[in-house]
């Protein structure tokens, strides 16, 4: 049995749901209970199903990106620009195509973002010696000096997300996410 709940002043109204089908309104029992009582009741029977995985990961990603966008404002950077800088700085990406593959962005959007980063003097594009149509990406002097300043900011957002979770659980969580990605490759 699961409960659907909605806030009603200081109480929560719980409605019985059997086999994921809400009972018809005329058969519903409405019970008033405190938030604490509701949380205790839900802790034993409220489970997240495997079908919620994508929604939860997307929601977490969106929340983290919004927090990172806010935290990086003093550096005049977005979370996506920071991710590109980090990938370039760590030698994981040096072309538009590689950044697109890793960051799951389309080439047009990525190209526009790289243009904005070039205008901000964060990156430089050099013609690829083997293919005149491509460019190799590198951090500019400004981008290279900005990167170490922004890492603590990014780490603080991760720490915020992991607040109250033990190191062992963090490691287990990250290991499981990597495993899930490998399963889908």
TrEMBL record:
Residues 50-182 form the HTH marR-type domain. The keyword Ubl conjugation does not apply. Keywords: DNA-binding, Transcription, Transcription regulation. It comes from the Bacteria. Transmembrane segments: none annotated. This is MarR family transcriptional regulator. It comes from Shewanella electrica. The lineage of its organism: Bacteria, Pseudomonadati, Pseudomonadota, Gammaproteobacteria, Alteromonadales.
């Amino acid at each position: 049995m699961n409960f659907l709940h909605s806030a009603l002043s200081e109480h929560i109204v719980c409605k019985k749901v059997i086999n994921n089908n809400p009972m018809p309104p005329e058969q519903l029992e409405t019970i008033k209970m405190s938030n604490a009582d509701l949380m205790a009741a839900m802790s034993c029977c409220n489970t997240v199903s495997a079908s919620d995985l994508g929604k939860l990961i997307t929601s977490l990603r969106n929340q983290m990106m919004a927090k990172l966008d806010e935290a990086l404002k003093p550096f005049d950077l977005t979370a996506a620009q920071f991710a590109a800088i980090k990938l370039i700085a760590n030698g994981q990406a040096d072309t538009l195509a590689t950044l697109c593959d890793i960051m799951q962005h389309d080439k047009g959007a990525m190209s526009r973002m790289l243009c904005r980063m070039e205008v901000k003097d964060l990156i430089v594009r050099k013609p690829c010696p083997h293919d005149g149509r491509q460019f190799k990406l590198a951090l500019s002097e400004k981008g290279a000096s900005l990167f170490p300043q922004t890492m603590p900011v990014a780490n603080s957002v991760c720490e915020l997300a992991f607040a109250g979770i033990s190191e062992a659980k963090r490691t287990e969580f990250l290991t499981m996410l990597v495993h899930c990605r490998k399963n889908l490759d």
